[in-house]
Amino acid sequence: MKRDFTNPTKVGGLLLDSLFDANTILKADTDDTPEALTIAEQRIVGRITSGVINALTGAQVLTVLTGQAGATFDWNDQELDNIKTLNITNGTELTISSGAVTATQGHHSIDTEADAATDDLDTINGLDSNDLLLVFANNDDRTIRYRNGAGNIFLRHELFTKSFSFSSPAGSSGTFYRGGNYFAPTSEAVLTNISPTVTLGTANISYAMHAFTVAKGDGATDGSDLVLTVTGVSIDDEGNRNGSDSEVIVADALLATFATDTYSETPKKWLGQITITLSSSGGGTFNCSFNYGYAKYEDLMNQDLSITGFEVSGFAGANDTGFNLRLLYHSPTGWTYSAGSFVPGGTVLANQNTDHSTEKDLKNGEPINYKRTDLNQDVAGSNGEGLIIEITTSANKSVEFIDLHLHGHTVPNFSYQSAATQHALFMKHGSNWHQV
Questions:
Q1: Residue 5's pLDDT band (boundaries 50, 70, 90)?
Q2: CB contact burial 107-126 (16+ within 10 A = b; e otherwise)
Q3: Is the CB of residue 417 less than 8 Å from the CB of residue 143?
Q4: What are phi and psi of 300, to 5 degrees?
Q5: Does residue 46 share a domain with residue 66?
Q6: Residues of the chain with pLDDT > 90: what percent?
Q7: Tens of pLDDT, residues 152-165
Q8: Rounded CA separation 209/234 (Å)
Q9: Residue range 67-85, pLDDT digits in tens
């Protein structure tokens, strides 16, 4: 043991107790020279590059940790606060294969399969639940299309406002529509084996509407089945016209299935005049009665949506005690069959006459206003549902003009990226990725 008689804190090579205050440890920065080091609060014992053993600050500790991580940091379910910025690793390229990619980190560029001009991304594999993933297009000349719900990718909701206007036609009153149309006879069709067809519409007219039926509930046959089929000229939303097309509108028109008030609709849209035909395999005697017509509705380009508000503002052009506004939710529910006074329309979401009660009339030159909030109705626009505004007048030119607005939020069917400047952020919940 080395003795140091020149150092009054050491006796016989031993350190004196008086050298050690509270929170003090023993250290040696050079050989054979131990000394005391007091550790202040919020300090950690350590040694930075080219330094001595010291009580390091939090900033010095983070400097040591930077770049040294060899495994996942676990924050033990605690918050990480006061982050000035978050700098993540460079995005590495993933190439779509059969509509899917596999993420290996939180930042990736996405490229099309075989460098195609466009490609669909439906599924993202890899990573864990609650992970975040930032993605962007790899090449400005190639477009990535993310498809909502086609795989495990779900796009975020977007707010929308859809607006329409209406002015009463000169010299006319009655029922009018905005956002879509209903076109239907008030009387029923009674089809039998003797008279198995009924027509709707006029040749060469640009309807582009779905055909629909509403059951009386009397379908019967002595054959093995009872079917209603629509034939005519069809058109789809991509502009593809079929000059001789057909589609089954009711596959089982028997009473047990096609019961009273049951609504059916063709997915296809039709131009001009269509024919609805009742048939029965092996049937000698059969019959079925129903209301029928054309329907077109606002579905925001075949997107699912939630309608939250309806607002109307304008001026009257004449006195009218028979005026009304209704917002209709077009779906398979809410329909009522009638043999001679059929009125098309599904569920009523808002009714000006009901809400305004006695104060519902129009006065020439004075304002028209109506507003409803918190409607909160989900609409499956991707599956044959939509919205129609119905306007009823009983006096000629009673509406000088009104502006009509629908408010809500929608889930887009697609999201596109065609430039590296376009990024999208997703979070994984279970096995699905939801856009943030």
A1: very low
A2: bbbbbbbeeeeebbbbbbee
A3: yes
A4: 50, 50
A5: yes
A6: 82
A7: 999 999 999 999 99
A8: 9
A9: 666 777 777 788 888 989 9
The residue from 248, 271, 296 where one domain ends is: 296
Give the number of other CB atoms < 10 A from CB of residue 241. Answer: 11
- Quick one: 130 and 115 in the same domain? yes
d(CA 382, CA 371): 27
Write down which residue in 51, 81, 111 finishes a domain: 81
- Total structural domains in the chain? 4
Q: How big is the chain, counted in residues?
A: 436
- Are 283 and 317 members of one domain? no
Tell me how far apart the alpha carbons of residues 283 and 285 are, in angstroms, rounded to a whole number. Answer: 6
Tokens matching residue 409: 């939020």
Element (H, E) at 62: helix 58-65
What is the rounded distance in angstroms from the CA atom of residue 352 to the CA atom of residue 359?
Answer: 10
Same domain, residue pair 404 and 341:
yes
Q: How far is CA 174 from CA 45, 320, 322, 323, in A?
A: 87, 12, 10, 9
For the ranges 4-13, 111-120, 250-259, the lowest mean pLDDT is seen at: 4-13
pLDDT at 107 over 60: yes
- Strand-pair category, 100-102 with 123-125: parallel
- Within this chain, do residues 378 and 241 fall inside the same structural domain, yes or no? no
Computed on alpha carbons and rounded to an integer, the radius of gyration of the chain in Å comes to: 36
* Percent of the chain clearing pLDDT 70 (strictly above): 95
- Rounded to 10 degrees, what is the CA torsion of 82, 87, 88, 89? -150
Expressed as residue numbers, the domain containing 110 is 92-155+414-435
The residues near 331 (Cβ < 8 Å, ≥ 6 apart) are 346, 347, 379, 380, 384, 385
Mean pLDDT of the chain: 93
- The answer to whether 265 and 330 are in contact (CB under 8 A) is no
Which CATH number fits the domain that encloses residue 261? Answer: 2.60.120.340
Cβ-contact 198, 275 below 8 angstroms? yes
Q: DSSP secondary-structure letter at 103?
A: -
Residue at 87 is within a domain: no
pLDDT tens digits along 359-383: 999 999 999 999 999 999 999 999 9
CA distance 74 to 24: 30
Cβ within 8 Å of residue 52, ≥6 positions away: 29
> Which structure tokens are listed for 164?
């329409």
Q: In Å, how far are 30, 103, 419, 434 from 11, measured between CA atoms?
A: 20, 66, 76, 71
